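Justification of resources, computational component.

The compute hours requested in this renewal are based largely on the per-chain cost of generating structure records like the one below. Each record pairs the submitted sequence with a full structure-token output. That output is archived, and it is also reused by downstream analysis tasks.
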Amino acid sequence: MKLSRTTDCSLIPIKFPRWKERAVGIPTYKIKSHNEVTISYVKADGTRLYPYPLYISGEKIREYPTQNLKNGVIVHIVPISALEVLERV
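The structure output for this chain reads:
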């Protein structure tokens, strides 16, 4: 996905994905119309598994199921395959 550098995006940092579902949990309070997801998980050799920022639109996130966490936060469970590589131009 190509987006202008001036386009406002919500930055959503993810420490590690949900391996069982091959998905990420995106909190509802962080969702905007444009969302930049960064997965900072590092493999054993020190390289990032997902080195590039990823993009997903807010309306697409809302299509996925939600889950209530123990701390009261509601997250959308989004498959990693639904995220696109983000390129700022």
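The chain has one domain: 2-88. Residues 61 and 78 are 7 Å apart (CA to CA).
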